[in-house]
Amino acid sequence: MLATRRTLRYLRLPKQLSPLLNSQFQFCHLHTTFPTRSKDPSAPPPSSPPTLLAPPTIVIKPPIEEYVRQIREQYGNYLPAGLLEENEYKLYERYYGRPTRLLQTGETIVREDNLFPPPETPAVEALYAQVARRLSPHEWAQKEEEDDLDDHFVTGSPRLFHTHPLTSVSRFGTFPSTIALPRKVEGETETLIVDVAPQQLVDSAHNTLGGPHLQFSPIYSHKRSKRALDIPLNPTNPHMSNIDADVYLSAVMPGLYAQCLSSLTELRRRLGSDWVLGGDGDEKGVKNVLDVGSGGAGILAWRSIIEAEEERRRDELEERTDWGAPPAAKEGSGLRAVVVTAPDALRGKASRLLDNTTFITRMPDVNFENLFHTPGVDTEKNKAQPRKLYDLIIASNRLLPIVKRFYRRQIIDQLWSHLNPNGGVLLMIEKGTPMGFEAIAGARSTILKNYLQDVGEAFQSRATTNADGSTSDRTTKGPGAIIAPCTNHEQCPLFIHGATDGTQRKDYCRFSQRFRRPQYLQKIAKRSSNNTEDIEYSYVAFRRGTDHRADTKNKISPTKEDFSTTPVDGGAGTEIEGPYTMAQLRNHTLTLPRIVLAPLKRPGHIIMDVCTPEGMLERWTVPRSLGKVEYRDARKSRWGDLWALGAKTRVRRNIKVGSENNRSLSKLIAIRDPYDGGVRAIVKDKTTAYLKSKKKQAKEDRKVERLERKQEAIEKHAEMIKMHKERKLREKGLRKEGDRQTHAEKVRISRERRRKEQEWDM
């Protein structure tokens, strides 16, 4: 029987039987014994003689080469486990290589036939262009939010990865993409404002923050507030009433929380989990946090990061052990939080939202011993009570309200002097407006020039000349680097021309974050139909004492081919295998270009505006012909992502920063720098002296205008008189000429008459 099976297998099939074998045939095994042979031999024999069974159905297999080819055509790159025998599997590998995945029992294959749609007609492309003009980038992001869960997995197939690992590790933003206040904070805020009449709260918010749009709010960054610098509700200002504190908690705090959480999430992605909670390596975790300018929103966001990391570690421990989850750590693994809040009213209300938090009324003075501190060297003179250094400082809206440049420099010195020189992180956030970006860009240039070493010739400090003619040495700078969003340490390509008045600037670096408005903010904003809002902000984060550019151990140059998907033996999933560790991949992302605007997704190609590690602003095009993985990941890319898969076309992008010749129609005052002639600051002055001087200037302008009109009228009148005299003279001359002609005609007629009379007499 075995010989018969082997003979039938290699039998050449006739042509009339070949159509019966298609790709959907079934297989069954040919047994050499009857079913009764498999029973217990000790069982008694049957009373009646056994009935002869019909011979089993024989399914004829084609030759082994034809059979393997049919299996390949039916299943493609995937292969059901156990379908092929050993010799058949060897022939399969010799012809087609190893299968991408071994399908287990119950698994199905989902083919994405519409991944690359056919080219559209001109009419359809015109319709797409019309819809794209009407939709904002945030609406496009909301439309693509439904595909977040499909970025990595295929429905019906567990852990079948599509996104390239270099793309996954370079993502920007939170997941889910819409941020909401913690339920505890939202409920406590409702309790704090329950004693205030709703209409009184709404009216106070509109009067303080500029109407229902809240355009003077530090989180509002749309067209109406692009020129505004003043922040009415500032936690560092001691003058704030109880109703103002309620307005701050209800109208400003949710947006500040979203800004801080979005930027802190990006820091967590770039620095890793050990930076947050500590680990076995050099990272000791963040223990001391200082929040300046947000009234506690930064501490709330950081505690959300800690809770997420602790939950992730508990889940990983549960997967590795059978002992269950470990006990939860108390107060964020020993976190010591400090919030700078000057107003008494806001400090009392914010303490209800933040437990185990220290509130101070002002920022500590500059710690000159730590301003240019070398890592690893103890320079603290007061050993009994040393000054506190912070592992993380979150500074929100600290630079924008300040007018003069040297005042901003003092704020930067304060923040830098209290930063831990052994790995401390300074995060600075401003409004996503042209002026907010210029404040961040100016702070970036100041820190690179004065505090960080080996950052290029553009930021090398110069030797200064003293009053007596002597020359002081250059400032000793320490190690450090920019963590986000920049991946270059050169001059910002959008800030090459320096500060402007901001009214004509079109291109500036900012990022977007969507958050859900609580119910009380819905009433203040008077937007009952939509409870989400998109805010834009500019930020920069530095790490002091640690420079990832000098980390030669984790420096790699990966390619797309370094990563492969292999099936898991005995499992139903796949694993992404690569030769690099997560620390190496994180260090590599700090050298990638970042998408600084929403990608333009066109049929067949994607256009991305990126800021390169060389300090250039370029426009990259990723067409479908570049590769299937590159094209799909480019279509899934978003504003703020780092891009690791290259492009086919790269061109320099023109930058629109405005022109000094363009007349500004705003009420802002540009303060010029007397040394270089550039704009030093832009202020919105509303003092009494300014209003009086403006009124006096307007009066003088009106007087000059009246004199000009009067002089113009006099000149016009004199011109008219002159023209009238000339006309009179011309008329008089014509009359004289006419009189002479008339007299000559009369003389001629008289002479003619006398001549005729003489002829008649003769």
Automatic annotation (TrEMBL):
GO terms for biological process: translation. Residues 35-54, 550-573, 720-762 are annotated as: Disordered. Residues 550-563 have a biased composition (Basic and acidic residues). It is found in: Mitochondrion. One of its GO terms (molecular function) is iron-sulfur cluster binding. GO terms for cellular component: mitochondrial small ribosomal subunit. It comes from the Eukaryota. Mitochondrial ribosome (mitoribosome) assembly factor. Binds at the interface of the head and body domains of the mitochondrial small ribosomal subunit (mt-SSU), occluding the mRNA channel and preventing compaction of the head domain towards the body. Probable inactive methyltransferase: retains the characteristic folding and ability to bind S-adenosyl-L-methionine, but it probably lost its methyltransferase activity. PANTHER family: 37S RIBOSOMAL PROTEIN S22 (PTHR13184), METHYLTRANSFERASE-LIKE PROTEIN 17, MITOCHONDRIAL (PTHR13184:SF5). This is Rsm22-domain-containing protein. It comes from Choiromyces venosus 120613-1.
